[in-house]
Design a protein that fits this description.
Layout: H1 8-17, E1 23-24, H2 25-32, H3 36-48, E2 52-56, E3 64-68, H4 70-91, H5 96-125
Antiparallel strand pairs: 1-3, 2-3
Helix pairs in contact: 2-3
Length: 126
């Protein structure tokens, strides 16, 4: 992606921003699994580069919606085939069954970490 002028994190943001016409900053952070403050800094750069614009919600003035600019849509359209090509490369020679097993094991590993962190937090609070 670097050769195409975007970082991996920008690509992920462009991907999610292009799935809907509008998305809130909070929703984008959740979909990217990062803190809102991290997304805010990323969006500052993307806005400066003319890829995204912030639009205040008509329904709730506290909510800032995001949408791709024409330049952002064009950049995303150019990158999607590259992302798909990379995904095909990652999945090459891996069966659907193997992917299911990998996803299940990875999910269990993440849950182990979350449970451990929760146990430590509870112990500290006692």
């Amino acid at each position: 992606m670097k050769d195409l002028g975007v970082t991996r994190v920008q690509w992920i943001a462009l991907y999610y921003l292009g799935k809907d016409e509008f998305i809130s900053q909070k929703e984008l952070a959740e979909r990217m699994s990062v803190k809102e403050s991290s997304v805010a800094r990323l969006l500052d750069r993307m806005e400066r580069d003319g890829l995204v614009e912030r639009v205040r919600s008509e329904e709730d003035k506290r909510v800032i919606n995001l949408r791709l600019t024409e330049k952002g849509r064009q950049r995303r359209a150019k990158l999607v085939p590259e992302g798909e090509k990379f995904e095909r490369l990652l999945h090459k020679n891996i069966s659907d069954e193997d992917m299911k097993i990998f996803t299940m094991v990875l999910s269990k590993m993440v849950n182990n970490i979350l449970e451990e962190n929760m146990d430590e937090k509870c112990t500290r609070e006692l």
